[in-house]
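Is this the right way to post structure tokens for a design question? Let me know if I should format differently. Anyway, here goes:
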């Protein structure tokens, strides 16, 4: 068992960060860069994923963390839906669209796994523990090969 002490150690957060950076770079190109409403909505959705994972983790309680994980997962769904719109409008080529879709699907998978783990854990979170370092999760549960690329 490894101790996760900072949200930056969460694989789901790391991958959400990669999604944000990838999308921001792609959203400055082509027609999407001038479709301000859709571009900004998509930016907000992908930022919301990583922000809610961080905020939930910092709440130091499993119930609150789970709630914020669900919000992050919902934001991933929002981004996915908007990605279909952007793709249908021809704002992305197939390769870019596929790359963004794979990233957001992997983030969603990791968040779902994190939610399952937290729901089945007998840990209550650091806020309910005498020692903050008692808040431990299995490191292998958060691993992802997609960050290697």
């Amino acid at each position: 068992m490894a101790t996760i002490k900072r949200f930056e150690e969460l694989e789901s957060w790391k991958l959400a960060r990669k999604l944000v950076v990838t999308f921001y770079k792609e959203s400055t190109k082509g027609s999407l860069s001038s479709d301000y409403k859709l571009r900004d909505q998509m930016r907000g959705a992908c930022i919301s994923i990583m922000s809610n994972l961080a905020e939930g983790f910092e709440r130091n309680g499993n119930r609150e963390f789970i709630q914020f994980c669900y919000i992050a997962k919902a934001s991933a769904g929002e981004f996915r839906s908007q990605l279909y719109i952007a793709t249908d409008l021809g704002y992305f080529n197939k390769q870019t669209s596929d790359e963004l879709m794979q990233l957001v699907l992997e983030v969603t998978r990791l968040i779902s796994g994190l939610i399952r783990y937290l729901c089945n854990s007998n840990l209550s979170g650091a806020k309910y523990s005498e020692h903050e370092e008692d808040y431990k999760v299995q490191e292998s549960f958060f691993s992802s090969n997609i960050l290697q690329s």
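Format looks fine. Someone answered above. Worth noting: Confidence is low (pLDDT under 50) at residues 128-149. The helical segments are 11-27, 36-58, 62-88, 94-120.
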